[in-house]
Each structure stands twice: as structure tokens, then as C-alpha cells.
Amino acid sequence: SLESGAGNIAVPGLYDSVAPLTREEEEIYEKIHFDPEEFRKEIEAPALLYPTKDKILMHRWRYPALSLHGIEGAFADPGVKTVIPRRVLGKFSIRIVPNMDPDVVEDQVRRHLEAVFARRKSPNKLRVWAEVKAKPWVANVTDPLYTAGRRAFQAGTQVHGREPDLIREGATIPIVADLERVVGKGIVLLPIGGADDAPHSQNEKVDRIHFINGIKVFAAFLHEVGQLPREPAAKDVGNSDVPPAQ
Fold it and tell me: Domain Peptidase M20 dimerisation spans what residues (predicted)?
């Protein structure tokens, strides 16, 4: 009941607070090199839910996404068992995006599942809760740090020698939003891995060439940050008639 059958999450009201798509953001997707057919073959899917490159990337990056992670309590070993478990725990997550509130989403999901369960008139009990919640974060790509990041990837740094794609990849890094809020500065995430690194899975990896190039990118990035114009110093707020301390 969580999925509509058309690639959308079927929880009422879930999409109401999603940030609207702007023309500037659309242009970013248009510039990204991405082959849907190659992607389909890599993930070994018989078909993709969305027909165009832009739609595929947007539903991977800028719209909320539902993931099913497992069922605990049911028999999962090889073979056939007729045992009925007394308790089953289903695990899923919803990646939220800018303007969505995790507390509101939790309430929407709970009310939806409880309503569906009530219609079944089951004598069993249902409990829905969120194990972990975090607010969404998206970078400000107009920040000077992104100017330095682009230069670190481009020609002259002997790293990749090309204009980098600006992507919005879902990730579980809640500390990023806290860092930005506490220090009051922009945050830039520089990738060093590949699309097939399978993070958080049993076969997670980082290719050595990506690790080596990542070191070069970080070194080039720090150099480019040093070339950025300095921010203007804060003005003195003391009495202008009083000479500065020596």
C-alpha cells in the first residue's frame, strides 16, 4: 500500500511540501551525461519506470524515494517451512527531500498504514515507528566553494580534466546539515567513488584509481580555495574616536 504502481509513494500528502522544480534545476539535468539504456543493463532491470533521462534522474535525486530493506521474523533460509511467525517486522525507509519535515512524514506514513490496516479488519496489532530521522539537505551550488570544486576537476589540475556534473545523490549524512548550520558556511561534497561502489552493501568497495584521484582532487580543491577572493573583514563596532590597541 506504500507504492502506487507508477513509481510514486502512495502516502496522502507526502508530496505537498516537495520543493518545486525550477528551470535552472532542469538545465542541470539536461547537461548530465546519462544513458538510460546503459543504466537499465547495469542494474539488470527488464524495464525502467520513467521514459527519459531527466525523469529518471529526478526520481533518483530530487523526489522522495521509498526503499524496502527486509522482513525480520519470517522464515528466510533455503527450503520450505510452514511455520507462521507470531511477530513480523518490516523495514523500509523514505528518503525525504528539501522542504519536507521528517516528523510530518512519519505522521503521514503512520496514519496511512493504520488506515490500510484498519480496512483489513485483522485481529492482529500494527505498530509503526521511525528508528532514525534526519532533515534533508541540498547544497547551494552557487557558493564559491563550488567554483573551487569545479576548477579542481577541470583541466590544469591533472585530475579529471573535465567539467564535473552537479548531482543530487541521496545519502545518510545528517551531520552535513548540522555543520552548515553551526559554522554558517557553505558545504561542498566532493566524490571520490564510482557509481558501482555499492555503499552500505556487503560488497562495498572503492577502486584504487578512484582513491588516488580523490587525493589529487582534494589537494587541487584546497589549492583552488586558496585562490578565491577573500571575504571582507567585519567592520569594527567600537567607538571610532578611540585609537586601536597597540
Answer: 44-118
